[in-house]
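Board notes (copied after class):
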Amino acid sequence: MRVVIVGAGISGLSCYLFLQKHLLSVIKAPTDLEIIILESHAATSRRDASDTAFEEAAAAPGPFADTIGAAIGLGTDLSEAIFAQVANSGYPVSHFHLASARGHSLARIGATNQKDPRLHTVLISRQHLWDCLREHVPDKVIDDHREVSGIIYSKAQRPAVQFADGSADLEADLVIGADGVKSVIKKSVTGDGKVDKHPAIYDGLAGVGGFVSSSHLRGNEPRGRMTVTFGAHGFFGYGACTVAPQSNHFAECTAPAGDEAAWWSTYECSELPDTRNFDKDDILRQLKVRHAGWADPVVQRIVDGAVINSIYPTWITPELPTWHTRGLVLIGDAAHAMQPSSGQGTSQGFEDAQVFSMLLAHHLERHFSQSASRVERQIPASVSEAVDQASKEYFELRRPRVKRIVDRAKQMGDTKRKKGLVEEYLTYLILWIIGQYLWLLRLAFRGIFRTSRRITDDIPGLLPVDTYTKQVYNDLPIYEVQRVIEADKSPAVKPVVSPS
């Protein structure tokens, strides 16, 4: 069986690792499984290749740092070694300090889960996360500098990848589009392959940010804190993102800050910024004007010494009618790029990879073993049918959850837009109330999560690194996957016929 993953970003690499984990338990001979990752950029350098919003600075345009804090949902279910490496590459955050631009302390929100052992959020650059994953993916499976131009179907109706340089098509049993918000594979999934019928939409928000010396932080900065500040003209966040040498915390305790801190500023920008040709001095001037007068001295020190290298517009993917078709599947930003306000972009890419890999392994096992199944569930007669069944169930399970997160992220994103005086203070009041009465936060998120069924309740082996907000989001429907699998393994139940 040949699987081609288009995109060697975080979603693509994690998909490879999950497929290796689950498929090799079904396909007994490793030589019968071939997984190839195609990447248009260099995938051996320190670069997050295909996922959006990472260049040199890894600025995170969102209150819970999706672009920087990207270790959400990754745990020992994938690999204990990867989990430890990711956790120890970042800074353990025990709580978020929410503040106003005028100097008010609004809320202290815990960033630790309630499991044993208790795990903190880890603030980590996307670059370091990508590096951790990349170390566990063999060089031989990545074919970089290969730009994919489209998909055609062979005479046997198998998908084949076409290349921009005109080289020979690459036929496969399954092509996974992990190629980001401007996905080429999406064109073939939702249309005729020529025109993107559902192009990404600029959301009217942009971000800048980067890394500075941790000396910019307060001398008495509490361990484990990340600060998130809201104002009338945008949003500013900062926190340490490395730890002192030999501080192997495994996300189980706080640790002394290292030499590096991360910062990011998000603001409303009506016109789409040109990310390649922009006036860095003007963007820096706007940054200083936007945060002039903000009471936090750390914000002022960071802004005074800031260097602007990149600007990050916020792109979102409109709701797609489907994420799959005839041997093609979309994951991550290619399927559902969302506002960074969700704090869930990277996490949802992990979830996509895990859910699809589990379902694919299950249906391939049914195909290869031809084991007993429910009467109404036809056993896949071919690898192609197994792929189709897994793809269909993946979409049905994942879409409702992703939609809830996207809808909530849109509401949260409005807190970063320009506000009048009344709206500004109303935002502060709401955040203060939430900080005082956390049960209101749970009530506000009702319909997005089920507190009795979080990921850690259902999969004991998966250890999330999450924030409070991400905990209430982390209702990964793995138990639904297990329910599908167990239902297929159950003996066929004959209908009960009432006597006439």
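Comment from the instructor: The CA atoms of residues 200 and 412 lie 19 Å apart. Residues 45-74, 372-376, 445-476, 492-500 have pLDDT under 50 and may be disordered.
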